[in-house]
């Protein structure tokens, strides 16, 4: 299934943020910055990537659940079960 880029705006913003944070982590290591600061920035980058991934998965699941019958609303319990099966 092809996802519409317009539906992924929030994921793209998070990925851009993670890209910047990863660049900061690399610079911090090259500059010999304090380990605590590096880990804090790396954690923020990891969190941004996780949230972007979950956003993409959620968008895909929503489209998948409604693709067969666009007139019916997605069954949230079934969507949750699919989402959790990916974890």
Strand-pairing-aware structural class:
mainly alpha
Instruction: State the total count of DSSP E strands.
Output: 0
Helix content: over 70%
Residue-averaged pLDDT: 81
Q: Helix and strand succession?
A: HHH
Model regions low in confidence, pLDDT < 50 over at least 5 residues = none
Number of helices: 3
Largest sheet, described in full?
Answer: none
- Rg result: 17 Å
In a nutshell, what does this entry contain?
This protein has 87 residues and is mostly helical.
Notable characteristics:
single chain; about 90 residues; mainly alpha; 3 helices
What does this entry look like structurally?
This protein has 87 residues and is mainly α. It is 75% helix and 0% strand. It has helices at residues 9-30, 35-67, 76-85.
Give the secondary structure arrangement, pairings included.
Layout: H1 9-30, H2 35-67, H3 76-85
Helix pairs in contact: 1-2
């Amino acid at each position: 299934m092809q996802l519409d880029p317009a539906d992924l705006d929030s994921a793209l913003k998070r990925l851009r943020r993670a890209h910047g944070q990863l660049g900061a982590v690399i610079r911090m290591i090259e500059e010999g910055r304090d380990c605590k600061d590096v880990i804090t920035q790396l954690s923020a980058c990891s969190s941004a990537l996780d949230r972007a991934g979950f956003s993409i998965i959620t968008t895909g699941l929503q489209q998948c659940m409604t693709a067969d019958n666009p007139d019916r609303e997605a069954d949230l319990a079934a969507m949750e079960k699919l989402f959790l099966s990916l974890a």
